[in-house]
Specification:
The complex is a heterodimer of chains A (158) and B (152). Chain A is of the alpha+beta class and 158 residues long. In chain A, strands 1-3-4-5-2 form a 5-stranded antiparallel β-sheet, covered by helices on one side. The radius of gyration of chain A is 18 Å and the shape is elongated. Chain B has 152 residues and is of the alpha+beta class. Helix content of chain B is 24%, strand content 34%. Chain B contains 4 helices and 5 strands. Chain B has a 5-stranded antiparallel β-sheet with strand order 1-3-4-5-2. Chain B is elongated, with a radius of gyration of 17 Å. Classes of the chains: A alpha+beta (158), B alpha+beta (152). At the A-B interface, helix 1, helix 4 and strand 2 of A face helix 1, helix 4 and strand 2 of B.
């Protein structure tokens, strides 16, 4: 991540990923394509549903984290590249654990996302790669934690 | 209207529900990635081939979103779903490539009525996605909330 090799990523590294604004239109567009449950499709469905109003699909909240992560990652890589540093390849993620949708995300909400490195280890099956573990969060404009998950991503060794 | 929907009581532990199929296209992989996960191996065939994934592959978050669509169409939208508060684990076991057709199923592992909210039942579920050759691509353990008919 951030263009850094596994050896240069330390536990505790915390990255502010910036924020993603959820408009009514973007909530409806995502839900119509990927999560057409009544409480994600209309105000009326939302009022009659479990969240008390039209709310974003949880996978939209998750995708917003990824969008912010990729943008910050690209910017960090560009900075390193401009400084003449060798960039580490960012690999795919094998999955994640403990994803929590703690509060609904409503139209007009702005979620600020973050990523904190919680550990790393070598990958026995692929000696050129390691895995970085992270705790990731999303906080709304009222300061309420609405989203979290524990991530893993393959990261190149130097 | 609520009575037409299936409820918590209508599903049993051990029950397996077929989630139908989802055709994965290159255009959709690129569209999702362009908006949410703009990494070269999700955007470009050649970059995908050159990467550890070995081809133009869907973002893992896209795979979760496709699975969500299958779950909504095949299960939740004919049931009194109350959403979910989380996923205990997702394993992206193999990349999902353009041109593949996914099939899915959900296995109900446990069920209980919420102690705090007697109108809400809680299922723990194992969701699985396969390609047309039967190769398992993704596994998800997640909770689904559903209205209890007896409490309606």
């Amino acid at each position: 991540m951030l263009g850094l090799f596994l050896e240069d990523i330390d536990e505790g590294l915390t990255v502010d990923l910036g924020s993603y604004h959820f408009t009514r239109d973007s909530i409806l567009k995502f839900a119509r394509k990927y999560d057409p449950q009544p409480f994600h499709l209309s105000e009326e469905g939302g009022r009659n549903g479990p969240f008390g109003g039209l709310s974003a699909s949880g996978w939209h909240t998750a995708a917003g984290w990824m969008k912010c992560f990729v943008e910050v990652n690209d910017a960090a890589r560009a900075t390193l590249q401009a400084a003449g540093k060798t960039l580490a390849e960012l690999g795919p993620g094998p999955g994640f654990t403990n994803l929590k949708w703690l509060k609904p995300v409503f139209p007009g909400d702005t979620i600020r996302y973050s990523c904190r490195v919680t550990g790393k280890r070598d990958l026995a099956s692929r000696p050129q790669w390691g895995i970085v573990f992270s705790m990731n969060e999303g906080v709304n404009q009222k300061g309420e934690l609405v989203y979290s998950f524990e991530g893993k991503v393959l990261t190149a060794r130097r | 209207m609520v009575s037409e929907l299936l409820h918590f009581e209508d599903f049993a532990v051990g029950q397996v529900i077929n989630l139908g199929t989802y055709a994965v296209t290159a255009a959709e992989i690129r569209e999702f990635a362009g908006e949410f996960d703009a990494q070269p191996f999700h955007l470009d065939e050649a970059a995908g081939k050159a990467s550890i994934l070995g081809g133009l592959a869907a973002s893992g978050w896209h795979v979760c979103s496709m699975l969500m669509r299958m779950i909504a169409d095949s299960w939740l939208n004919t049931s009194a779903s109350m959403g979910s508060n989380g996923v205990s684990e997702v394993k992206w076991l193999k990349p999902v490539f353009a041109g593949e057709t996914l099939s899915g199923r959900v296995n109900i592992l446990t069920k209980r009525v919420s102690s705090k909210r007697p109108e809400m039942g809680i299922f723990e579920c194992l969701f699985e996605l396969f390609n047309e050759s039967g190769v398992k691509k993704t596994e998800m353990n997640a909770v689904v909330f559903m209205r209890v008919k007896a409490a309606c």
